[in-house]
Design a protein that fits this description.
homodimer, alpha+beta
Chain lengths: 134, 134
């Protein structure tokens, strides 16, 4: 939550992640920062409403990044309200994970063990495991 | 559109893609097959409505894959109605691509040149390029 927003976006970008799990100070996952939300943040509202106006934008993408992410916390750039965190348990079956992911339309779920988060499963990774058992 | 659905999902899974661009026979992109849609397809409707019922499901995930994807075309497993295809032009700027992606809430866009599709940009890839120019 209080990590640097620019560091978080660098992590999203360099690892090509669809989103990051955001935890509180105790390490409990509380929400997701989706890559799509960060893209939205970089686009001024009037350009979002009419993409043809992007051509007349005087700011560069670098300016937008500095303006929207520089010196901010992850908490400050989350969607309002932040998406619910979708979690599964380490002993859930693949079908249970698929059901929870599909029901919540979540691109990723956090996997919780007895001592907190132990990993993350994305939709393509779930399909990879499902096909492996085929 | 008429590719084998199981081959398409294998591609999604092994390349860990958030989705595939689906083209018609002429190679024109017409829609997206998102990984999340395939996950939905693998979950029976009654389990989608109540994930706790996943425990009593007699079918394995392998059975579900064979049942839902085996011998089917990509067209048969698309969401109804299929999502609009989001395209950008090769000479669009990063801000234009970001605006179009954000406006359509699309996890990926197809890039169109004079002779058809030349590539695909995902949200994390767009962020990678934007940060590179920072």
């Amino acid at each position: 939550m209080d990590s640097d927003a620019l560091d978080a976006v660098r992590l999203l970008a360099t690892r090509r992640l669809p989103g990051l799990v955001v935890t509180d100070q105790a390490g409990t996952p509380v929400t997701i920062l989706p890559a799509s939300q960060v893209v939205r943040l970089l686009v001024p509202v009037y350009v979002l409403e009419d993409p043809s106006l992007a051509g007349v934008l005087s700011e560069s993408i670098a300016d937008r990044i500095a303006d929207k992410l520089g010196g901010k916390s992850v908490a400050a750039v989350l969607p309002k309200p932040p998406p619910d965190m979708t979690t599964v348990k380490v002993d859930d079956t693949i079908i249970e994970v698929a059901a929870i992911m599909a029901r919540n339309r979540s691109p990723l779920v956090a996997v919780m063990g007895a001592k907190g988060i132990v990993g993350v499963i994305t939709a393509p990774r779930l399909l990879e495991v499902a096909l492996g058992s085929h």
